[in-house]
Structures are given as structure tokens and as C-alpha cells.
Amino acid sequence: MIIDSFGRRFQNLRVSLTAACNYACTYCVPDGKKLQAQSAELDGDAMARAVALLVDAAGISRLRITGGEPLISPKFDEFLRGVARLGLSDVAVTTNGQFLAQKIGVMKESGLGRINVSLDTLDASKYRSIARSGDLATVLEGIDQACAAGMKVKVNMVPMRTANIDQVVPLLDYCLLRDIELRFIELMNMGHLKRNQMYEREFVGMDDLLDLIRNKYEVRTTDAPFDSTSLRFEIPNQGRFGIIANESEPFCRTCTRLRLSSNGFLYGCLSSSKNYSIRHLLEEPYYIAINELQDVLRNAMASKQRLAFTGETTVMKFIGG
């Protein structure tokens, strides 16, 4: 187990199951181009083996399956069943929700109890403008079915100044009525937004978000786990919401996240393009792979920012959100 001078160790693994996505969201993909899957993606068995090795080598206890869009990957079912056997304390999925209703069965069968749905607006026209694909009604139906099946659902929203700032309160209303926790994610200065005027134009910080919400609701600060990326807030007698304030209130000092890309590279930090291939280790005997992983994990840990996110040109969908 690798522990750095800040006391950080890898506990939370985020796996980008595929780089392919059926959406082309404006804050993720430049110029509306749907970036396609890389040709050298690992298959489901190899990815499950990589996760198993990282559980043993790094002490991973929590797993989030991301993308691209994981639900469009043909290896999703196989991979989910494989990692469900690893005895992790928490397994979750982040999805755009377009195919959520079709996958609730295998999620329940595997014991998955928690999903995050990316949803930036309740306005169908704005939805198509931001996602540049998809059908809002289908996503909302998927959320309703997941809630009815007893799954814990969170909604992720990226507020943007000219695109959907007017949707902050309506989305919060929607989530509070359904006992869903809404998490606002500050726009990240990475990928095509790095050194781009769009980032400066569209960024909405935590203080502005709280001002909007306090125009309607009483808001109180509440506790969050020490390594949470989300600052938690309570609306008395109605529910909670969170803000992932990567710019306004950085959380790098307590970050326990490690990322595995769909083509077998480890990333220790979103703010660093340094990556480390572990593909060759998946063919090695277990004891050799575990020993060699220690050096890889030390390097990945060393790439973490000490204080705050500084931005990177790496595309988020390749390394898992």
C-alpha cells in the first residue's frame, strides 16, 4: 500500500470502461465531434483482472465505472459481474442515462445499488444543445425506473453561465421531490477547455451557485467524508445537495482517487497527463504483477497535485470522470 507525505493512499478506483460515447457534450468534446473508442481497449476479462490486481496492490475498496459512456460498451455486463465478486465496499456507475432503463436488471442482479446520472437541464431543447444527442424524456424515465427499483440515484449537473444557469434551481427542485441528491460540478479547466475562452465565459463558481439556491431555500453546511470531492449542504426537512468545487475550494490534499483508462493506463491525477501502462502486467503471474505494480503506483501517487487542480489538456472521457 502506497501512502504519501499528505497521508493519501489510493482507495477509490475509477475505471473508464470505454472511451466511446453516444453524446458529445459541449464541456467534454470539442466542436461536437464524437471521439471514438481507442482501438486497443482492454476486453472485459482483462479489465476485471486489472481491477482485482489494483484491489490487492493498492488497497482499493471503492470502484466507480465510468466512460465515455459505460452502458454502451458490450463488455459492461461481463465486467460488472466480474467486479461484483471482488468484495468491494462500494461499486457505482456514472452514466448519461440514455440506456439506463435497459441495464437496471443486470445492475440489480450484480448487487449494484448506486448510480450517478449526468443531467444538465430539464429543458429538452437545452438538453439537445448541451449533449448534442440523446432524448431527455428517455433519461428521466430511466431515473424513475431506477428509483422504483430501490437504487440510490444521484444526479450530476455542470452549471454553465450561458448554457444552463437558469436550470440550477429547477433541477434542485426535481431532485428534492424524488429524494435524489444533486451534485453541482464546477466546470473543469481541462481537455479542449484548457486555455480556451469558453471556460472563462461559462465557469460558475460555488458562491454564485449558493446565491442562486439561497434565493429560494435555506441552506446549511453539513458534513462530508474526509476524502469526498463534494462539499455537502442541507436544505432543512427537504434534502441535501453537493458542490464539487474543484476551483473554488480544491480538495487535492485529501484525494484518494486512481484512474484506469479503457486501454490499460493508470492516472494518479486529473491535473497531470502522466500515465503508466499496466497492460503487460495482466499477462504476468500474480506475484510478479503485484510486485511490479508497487513501483507504478508510487509514480502515479507522485503525480498528484499537492494543493489544487491546475488544469490539463487530457480529455476526461479517456480517463474516467
Summarize the structure.
With 321 residues, this protein is α/β, with parallel strands linked by helices. The chain is 32% helix and 17% strand. Helix 1 crosses helix 9 (286-302).
Order of helices and strands: EHEHEHEHHEHEHHEEEEEEHH
* Uncertain runs: none
**Portion in strands:** 15-25%
Shape: globular
Mean pLDDT: 88
Structural class: alpha/beta
Number of E-state strands: 12
Work out the radius of gyration.
19 Å
* Largest beta-sheet details: 12 strands, mixed
| Spatial sequence of strands, sheet with the most strands | 7-8-9-6-5-4-3-2-1-10-11-12
Give the CA-CA distance, first to last residue.
24 Å
Give the % helix.
Answer: 25-40%
Outline the fold blueprint.
Layout: E1 12-16, H1 44-58, E2 62-66, H2 76-84, E3 90-95, H3 100-110, E4 114-118, H4 124-131, H5 136-148, E5 152-157, H6 168-177, E6 181-185, H7 197-202, H8 206-214, E7 220-222, E8 231-235, E9 239-244, E10 257-260, E11 265-267, E12 276-277, H9 286-302, H10 316-319
Helix pairs in contact: 1-2, 1-9, 2-3, 3-5
Describe the fold and architecture.
The chain has a twelve-stranded mixed beta sheet with strand order 7-8-9-6-5-4-3-2-1-10-11-12. The protein has ten helices and twelve strands. The chain has helices at residues 44-58, 76-84, 100-110, 124-131, 136-148, 168-177, 197-202, 206-214, 286-302, 316-319, and strands spanning 12-16, 62-66, 90-95, 114-118, 152-157, 181-185, 220-222, 231-235, 239-244, 257-260, 265-267, 276-277. The protein is α/β, with parallel strands linked by helices and 321 residues long. α1 (44-58) runs parallel beside α2 (76-84) and α2 runs parallel beside α3. The mean pLDDT is 88.
